[in-house]
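Hi everyone, sorry if this is the wrong subforum. Our group has a chain we'd like a structural model of before ordering constructs, and none of us has done structure prediction before. Sequence below.
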Amino acid sequence: MVFLVMMLIAVAVVVRVMRSASAQGGGAGRPARSPKAPRTQKPVRPLAPDDDPEFLRELERRTRRDDGSPA
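Answer:
Right subforum, don't worry. Here is the predicted structure as tokens:
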């Protein structure tokens, strides 16, 4: 009975060691993975054109006459 308990403890220790080694990238038989580069987030753009300040400036510029008065 003591032998069985010792075997279960030994298996548990081996499993824990293997999991921690694979979590660190040093898994047996596999090449170590390079750490992933952090993803750069794209700038959040407004969904609709009427929410885009740049679009509204361009629209207002187009609607103005040469003398600066609104169309």
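For your construct planning: The chain has two helices and no strands. The radius of gyration is 32 Å.
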